[in-house]
Amino acid sequence: MSTRSSFFDPCTRFGRWWFGELAALLPAALRRAVTGQMPDLILQLSEGRFVFHSGQGERADRLGDCDAAAAGLPDELAKRLKKANSRGGQTILALPRSLVTIQDDELPLAAAENLNDVVGFEMDRLTPFRQDEVYFHARVLEQDREQQKLTVALTASPRTTVDPLLERARTWGLKIDRVDVATGRTRTGSSSFLKGINLLPTSSGGTSKVIGRAVTIGLLLGVVFMTGLAVSIPLDRKERFAEALSQEVLLARKKLSAVRNLTDEIQALEKSNRYVADVRQKTPMVSRVLDNVTRLLPDDTWLSQLRLIEDRLEMTGYSQDAAQLIAVFDESPLFDEPKFRSPVTRDQRSGVERFSLTLKLAEKGS
Fold first, then answer.
1. Handedness of CA 171, 174, 180, 186 (dihedral sign)
2. DSSP 176
3. What's the whole-model pTM score?
4. Is pLDDT of 204 > 50?
5. Helix axes 210-282, 28-35, angle to 10 degrees
6. What single-letter DSSP state applies at residue 173?
7. Which tens digit of pLDDT belongs to each residue from 306-345?
8. SS3 of 62, please?
9. Alpha-carbon gap, residue 227 to 233, rounded angstroms
10. Is there a contact between 103 and 53 (Cβ–Cβ < 8 Å)?
11. For residues 126 and 103, is the Cβ–Cβ distance under 8 A?
């Protein structure tokens, strides 16, 4: 609700200003019809009597008076009231200052958006009454944006005081549109100045003439159309810009995804290359293995088979003394865990021993 209110407030202020400027160009009689400035019927309560006025401001004319407790109105006064009430203005109940409480209070700045609701919730703190016990009106006197505070004028009157007066007006055939406060008398003494507030929760307002209502609706529709046009053009541009921007963002995301995939592939290749390099670095070269085997084998030993399988070296051959091979390869830093894969046998024809030996290649630097 606060978002909707903040959106329409500038439109409302602009509409009021525009209506005022247009109305100023019209003749007085037509201006009253267009703007709804019909003569008001004012019921001023003063010292236990109702004083009736017709008009607005200092131009209000006194129609008569009667006792506030009277069951009916004098015939002549009833005729005048009926005629004044038929002109389409508001019917206003003007309370004396003695029947209302007026005070200034401070509230947070955020309360300005829903002032009456906030004041209603705070009523039991601001006054001796609960919200449902009073009619009230709140208006902003001052805004302090640095301190984030509002100075609010609160006008309130107990329902036990106002309700009997409203009921009395209804028995006379009068429906009260507004409850105001009388602040004093005019220079002519014919009527009272009003504060221009309404203590009632809602204000029904006066009934405008058909021509005034039609012109007002037409102007309001013009405001809505122009406002909608002024808002829709930049909105349409922003929508097109947002759509183009979203397409660019989508394309950028696709490119970023492709870059990430390439990065992942590069990192995987680098990892694989590092693994291969590590294995190569840790595993002795074949030429080095062959060189060491050639140098370590005794002169009376020769090989019939030599196989290098990953980190293991298998040798099969003949030797005058096969047992010495274990000690020979065990002392070499290039080989570990020398052992025979099968029992050593002696060849009957040549008289030498046949052996099958396995070795484990040691890592570099070990």
1. negative
2. -
3. 0.45
4. no
5. 50
6. T
7. 888 877 888 888 888 888 888 888 888 888 888 888 888 8
8. strand
9. 10
10. no
11. yes
At 208, the pLDDT band (50, 70, 90 cuts) reads very low
Which contacts of 196-200 are long-range, i.e. CB under 8 A and separated by 24 or more positions?
Answer: 197/137, 197/139, 197/155, 198/137, 199/95, 199/100, 199/135, 199/136, 199/137, 199/155, 199/156, 199/157, 199/162, 200/135, 200/176
Contact 191, 58 (CB under 8 A): yes
Is residue 141 classed as helix, strand or coil in its secondary structure?
Answer: strand
**What tokens appear for 204 in the block?**
């029904």
Mean pLDDT of 93-97: 86
Q: What are phi and psi of 206, to 5 degrees?
A: -80, 160
> What span, in angstroms and rounded, lies between the C-alpha atoms of 267 and 210?
81
| Residue 27 DSSP SS3 | coil
Beta bridge partners of residue 301, listed in sequence order? 319
Tokens at 234, concatenated: 């930049």
Pairing of strands 353-361, 335-340: antiparallel
Q: Which one, of 104, 95, 148, lies nearest residue 126 by Cα?
A: 104
Answer yes or no: are the C-beta atoms of 64 and 14 closer than 8 Å. no
Determine the pLDDT at residue 189.
Answer: 47
